[in-house]
Amino acid sequence: MIDRYMNVLSEHPTGAIRNFNPETGTTEIVDRGPNHVWHCSLSLPPRAGLLDDETWRKIAQDFMDEMGFTEASGKPPCRWVAVRHGTSKNGGDHIHIAANIVRADGTKWSRWWDWKNAGRACNTLEHKYGLEVIESREHNRGARADTPHELNAAKRAGRPETTRAMLETRVRAAAAGAANEAEFVRSVRELGVRIRPRFAKGRTDVVLGYSVALHTDAATAEATRWYSGTSLARDLTLARLRGRWAVTPEGAQAAVDEWRAAWRGEPARRRERPYDARAFQASAQALRAHRDAFSRIDPTDPVALADATQDLAGLLSAAAMQPDLDATQAREYSRAARALGRHAQLKSRPPRLSPTRTPFTHAARLFLTTSKPKSDAARAAALLDDMTAFARSLANLHRAAQQAQTAAMIERDLATLFAHANSPALDPQLARIKELAAASGSPSKIGRPSPTRTPYTPAPHAPRPVDRPTHTPHL
Known about the structure:
Number of strands: 8
Strand order of the largest sheet: 3-5-4
Shape: globular
Largest sheet: 3 strands, antiparallel
Distance between the termini: 27 Å
Order of helices and strands: HEEEHEEHHHHHEEEHHHHHHHHHH
Number of helices: 17
């Protein structure tokens, strides 16, 4: 039925056939074949309930109008069909749409930017029909997801996290604790990550980007998989990371030296200093003094909000690298950091006009460079108190920005971490200290200074460009 125009007019579109090559870890073109069908699904979350058939019919028609398949585009129509066959495995109501891209006059519908255009169409329909609006799409955010291949590889290796997830946490931690680019490169290597620069053509003193990989065990014959900063997270590209740091001739040369050392494969010299309770106490006091300014970030400034989210995600990532954590604790911090980091990834943003430093940077550096301390439940209690306070402030800021969905996700994603850290079974001494702290009104042995009233001043930035984000074709 939907192939009528194609068959009558003898127009048979073809396209590339791609298969995944496990040896190279890439998708390769292996042949050409029929490519006349365009398919997508429009789905609702399980909590949205069910729509009636007539509403779905209208949604399907409007969607195809928006996508340019119908006469509404001013061109001859394509033939298409929408099928509704109940809820999905997770309980969400949905429909499938299949269309033949050959129009009634033999011309073809263009697939160019179909993913992006489908997202725009979904956003229009979400508002028109009063459906749940996807806030990340509405607010120019989006994160990379683990691929099925990466998930299966982690499962085969018996790892709870994918290679991409492990790399993202370590690179984010290194960025959070670095005062300059040279420190970033050095810290990445100290965390057990291979990093290589992407030099400008014909140069070894101009670095345009980087890629990272885990060290592989030769006995397992596991192929090394490299990830660019872009493929880890949008806020971890070298261009965006450089916005965090001041630029000086000396700093630029130091960065080049570190990049060259990494390129040559020189062993990383780990910076490690003995545990200093006073340093952690000063850092905790600085974090508490920063709470008030953090909570008063302008929620209508998406860049300031993303930067604040990035700061907290970085601190959580650095906390996951603490040498005194067991595997379960480290995994919970890492999972929470990655979940929070999704909300910091703007698809487009103006460059920072000046670098910024916050107490998060110093705290992250302590986590990354301090040797294994003796059991210090007071420090753990203070850290947990800080994390909880900043997370609540961040959720409240998103609510003030009319992003209740994102606020709920932040609270949900961090709930497991905080519940685990609050478990009396985790550390009886920590539980006892928390009880005493609650009774005394102090979060820990470390006193809480009076909050400053200095207004928060986010990094200045250029006017934000008008850029519609890339979307998924789901309602």
